[in-house]
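Q: Could you fold this chain for me?
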Amino acid sequence: AELYERLKQVRFEIAKAENIPANTVFPNKTLESFTRLRPKSMKSGRSIRGVGEAEADRYLAQFVTVIQTYG
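A: Sure. Below is the predicted structure, expressed as structure tokens.
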């Protein structure tokens, strides 16, 4: 639950900075998958459902970095 909340915070910060809805960055289901599967590389992150090419290029690295800190 702690990782999920941190990922939601990262998403919120990105959305606020870009003035877009949070679910445009990644929907909740994708954050849940990140929490469960914990991708620790861009390649593994791109394989998760809900991660499109554009989202991966713009946002994925920030989420992978957070996930790496949670082991």
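A (continued): The CA atoms of residues 43 and 56 lie 10 Å apart.
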